[in-house]
């Protein structure tokens, strides 16, 4: 379904809801409550606060449902209602350091970013970054990178000066970059809410027209003129030639060894008067051409009688050694609150933080490598996540999709 069809369908639902049809109201709330909750969570880190904000926004939407049905973009109209409700909970906002310098030069969507296909996974990735920001920074990030507001528009919505707004955006971007490249973060937000400027720029780009080359027909032969010359890749050509030569040489050695291994040695003809002597290494000393071995005096040593050895009795007898029993190892009980379960895990996503403790309030040490397997020494549940200790003071969080864990009972 195209975006235009979605807008028309939502406008029709809003019109029916404004006429009092309860089925239309239920359909609207069922379809958009989850999205409105995510939108509120971008502004508010507390889940209960976000739920209360959504309920207040829904009451406002239902009270003004006629305006929703007449809006050019009903979904955008609903988001504006939620945005006002959520932003009001964070006001007043402020910048921590007014000396921060802001630039929008690097605020471009990375076209090669690894963005999940499922929108729910995209929302999880966005909230993972937003949860590292304070309320003022969350508001700035949501307005700038999700709603695509300009610094001047953000200043008007937050009652800040333009200088304070740019300082707040600069420190917000710095915190986002600590969790995810800004180009990747913009690719995540644009998947859920595309930037109109980017869409317009993409649609207005001119498509180059390729003109066909003239074809000259003469004597029933087609001759193509002015062919485009392809650039010859010399390094690749040399590499292909070297590989082909190595393959031919290896095949030649294999064939020579196969057919030459069982080949009989040539024998001297009767006409030859010279005696053919075996070369060094062709036979052992003493071996005649007929195959019989003749003993040689130099190679036959005379037997030397060896006196019999008599064991000398010892005055002391060495006692037999009795093995000492090894005490059984007693397992140490695991303290409460943590699991003795160990195993291994495989990281499924990029940019997953390795933290110094089992909680998002602990600092990030580095990023886990997607696809890599880590040994797990301890499992703990905290803050809605499952935490795995993969080293000394090194923990990975999981929401059920970020990693794949295989347990091994000790």
Describe this structure in words.
The chain is an alpha+beta fold. Helix content is 42%, strand content 12%. A 5-stranded antiparallel beta sheet has the order 5-4-9-8-7, with no helix packed on it. The chain has a 3-stranded antiparallel beta sheet with strand order 6-3-10, with no helix packed on it. A two-stranded antiparallel sheet has the order 1-2. A hairpin with a 2-residue loop joins strand 7 and strand 8. Residues 199-229 and 262-338 have low confidence and may be disordered.
Give the key terms.
410 residues, alpha+beta, Rna Polymerase Sigma Factor, Chain: A, Arc Repressor Mutant, subunit A, SH3 type barrels, five-stranded antiparallel beta sheet, three-stranded antiparallel beta sheet, 12 helices
What is the distance, rounded to the nearest whole angstrom, between the alpha carbons of the first and last residues?
53 Å
Number of strands: 10
Major sheet: arrangement of strands: 5-4-9-8-7
Strand-and-helix sequence, N→C? Answer: HHHHHHHHHHHEEHEEEEEEEE
What fold name goes in the CATH topology slot of the domain at 3-90? Rna Polymerase Sigma Factor, Chain: A
Could you estimate the helical fraction of the residues in percent? 40-55%
What amount of the residues lies in strands? 5-15%
- The overall pLDDT, averaged over residues, is 76
Low-confidence segments: 199-229, 262-338
Per CATH, the architecture of the domain at 3-90 is Orthogonal Bundle
Q: What is the overall shape?
A: extended
Individual helix count: 12
The radius of gyration over CA amounts to 40 Å
The CATH H-level superfamily of the domain at 3-90 is: RNA polymerase sigma factor, region 2, helix turn helix motif
* Text of the CATH class of the domain at 3-90: Mainly Alpha
Please summarize the sheet with the most strands.
Answer: 5 strands, antiparallel
The secondary structure category is: alpha+beta
């Amino acid at each position: 379904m195209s975006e235009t069809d979605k807008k028309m369908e939502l406008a029709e639902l809003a019109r029916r809801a404004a006429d009092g049809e309860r089925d239309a109201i239920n359909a609207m709330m069922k379809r958009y409550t989850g999205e409105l909750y995510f939108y509120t969570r971008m502004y508010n880190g507390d889940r209960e606060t976000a739920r209360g904000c959504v309920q207040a926004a829904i009451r406002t939407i239902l009270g003004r449902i006629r305006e929703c049905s007449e809006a050019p973009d009903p979904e955008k109209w609903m988001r504006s209602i939620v945005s006002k409700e959520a932003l009001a909970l964070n006001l007043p906002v402020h910048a921590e350091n007014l000396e921060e310098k802001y630039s929008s030069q690097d605020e471009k969507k990375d076209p090669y970013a690894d963005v999940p296909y499922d929108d729910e996974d995209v929302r999880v990735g966005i909230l993972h970054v937003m949860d590292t920001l304070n309320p003022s920074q969350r508001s700035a990030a949501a307005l700038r990178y999700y709603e695509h507001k300009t610094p001047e528009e953000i200043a008007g919505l937050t009652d800040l000066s333009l200088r304070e707004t740019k300082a707040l955006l600069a420190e917000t971007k710095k915190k986002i970059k600590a969790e995810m490249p800004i180009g990747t973060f913009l690719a995540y937000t644009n998947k859920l809410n595309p930037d109109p400027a980017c869409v317009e720029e993409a649609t207005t780009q001119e498509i180059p027209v390729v003109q066909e080359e003239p074809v000259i027909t003469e004597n029933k032969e087609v001759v193509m003129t002015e062919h485009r010359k392809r650039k010859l890749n010399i390094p690749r050509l040399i590499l292909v030639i070297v590989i082909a030569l190595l393959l031919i040489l290896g095949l030649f050695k294999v064939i020579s060894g196969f057919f030459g291994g069982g080949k009989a040695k040539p024998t001297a003809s009767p006409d030859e008067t010279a005696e053919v002597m075996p070369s060094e290494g062709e036979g052992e000393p003493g071996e005649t051409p007929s195959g019989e071995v003749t003993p040689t005096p130099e190679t036959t040593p005379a037997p030397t009688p060896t006196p019999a050895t008599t064991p000398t009795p010892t005055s002391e007898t060495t006692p037999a050694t009795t093995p000492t029993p090894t005490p059984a190892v007693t397992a140490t009980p695991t303290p409460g609150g943590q699991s003795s379960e160990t195993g291994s895990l495989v990281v499924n996503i990029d940019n997953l933080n390795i933290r110094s403790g089992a909680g998002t309030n602990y600092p990030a040490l580095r990023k886990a490598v997607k696809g890599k397997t880590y040994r797990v020494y301890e499992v703990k549940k905290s803050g809605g996540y499952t935490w795995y200790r993969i080293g000394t003071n090194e923990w990975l969080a999981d929401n059920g999709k970020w990693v794949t864990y295989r347990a091994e009972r000790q």
